[in-house]
Amino acid sequence: MLAILDYKAGNQTSVRRALDHLGIPCVITADPAVVDSAAGVIFPGVGAAGQAMRHLQDSGLDAVLRNVVSSGRPLLGICLGCQIMVAHSDENDTPTLGLVEGRCVRFDEHLEEGGAPIRIPHMGWNTISRKQESPILKDVPADAAFYFVHGYYVETAPEKVIATSCYGTEFCAVYGQDGLWAIQFHPEKSGRPGLKILSNFYEWCMARSAGGRVC
């Protein structure tokens, strides 16, 4: 079973629908005991970094997430979850979880896309450019497009960057390492390629629970 973390930051229901479609057992929960018993944790979210961190801290779920990582259980951050897994967000000048080194920065409004100033937030379908192979992108077509909605993006160490995309500038779209991944776009809203990413995460979780490893 996968646990979808409920911390009042929205988007949990659409993730659950996608997992239900795939036949993947899951539950939306804020119960630390349920999170602790799950094979893996999905950390989605929409909204602002400051408000999200307040909810996490007030509920004690920030400590729950740190325990997930320290215990080696798989974790997948999506959108806002991706942004607050690093140490600091420029949105609301917010100290964030620090699960991975890095910071979240705002798109520069002076950037251009197609010869015109970009609009913030970035909303729409973009392809990604892979910087390294990763189980989270296994069998995902190289030309697949994914749905993005965001005004901020993560800057982290180059060796953590799995894939980038472009909107006025090249930005990190997927980062992390085996078993600890973060995705800026919404896989649950990105059709078959996005569903494949969620399926890849579940396969990794099941292999780890069985004591194996996904290649």
Automatic annotation (TrEMBL):
Pfam families with a match to the protein in the record: GATase
Active site: C79 (nucleophile), H186, E188
SUPFAM superfamilies in the record: Class I glutamine amidotransferase-like
Pathway participation: Amino-acid biosynthesis; L-histidine biosynthesis; L-histidine from 5-phospho-alpha-D-ribose 1-diphosphate: step 5/9
Signal peptide: none
Predominant place of localization: cytoplasm
Claim: Lipoprotein is one of the keywords in the record: no
UniProt keyword annotation of Ribonucleoprotein present: no
Catalytic reaction annotation: 5-[(5-phospho-1-deoxy-D-ribulos-1-ylimino)methylamino]-1-(5-phospho-beta-D-ribosyl)imidazole-4-carboxamide + L-glutamine = D-erythro-1-(imidazol-4-yl)glycerol 3-phosphate + 5-amino-1-(5-phospho-beta-D-ribosyl)imidazole-4-carboxamide + L-glutamate + H(+); L-glutamine + H2O = L-glutamate + NH4(+)
Localisation per UniProt entry: Cytoplasm
UniProt keyword annotations, A-Z: Amino-acid biosynthesis, Cytoplasm, Glutamine amidotransferase, Histidine biosynthesis, Hydrolase, Lyase, Transferase
GO molecular function, one term: lyase activity
Residues in Glutamine amidotransferase domain copies: 4-202
EC number(s) stated in the UniProt entry for this protein: 4.3.2.10, 3.5.1.2
GO biological process: L-histidine biosynthetic process
Cellular component GO terms, alphabetical: cytoplasm
Assembly mode: Heterodimer of HisH and HisF.
PANTHER family xrefs: IMIDAZOLE GLYCEROL PHOSPHATE SYNTHASE SUBUNIT HISH
HAMAP family for the chain: HisH
NCBIfam families tied to this protein: IMP_synth_hisH
Purpose: IGPS catalyzes the conversion of PRFAR and glutamine to IGP, AICAR and glutamate. The HisH subunit catalyzes the hydrolysis of glutamine to glutamate and ammonia as part of the synthesis of IGP and AICAR. The resulting ammonia molecule is channeled to the active site of HisF.
Protein name listed in UniProt: Imidazole glycerol phosphate synthase subunit HisH
Source organism per UniProt: Bilophila wadsworthia (strain 3_1_6)
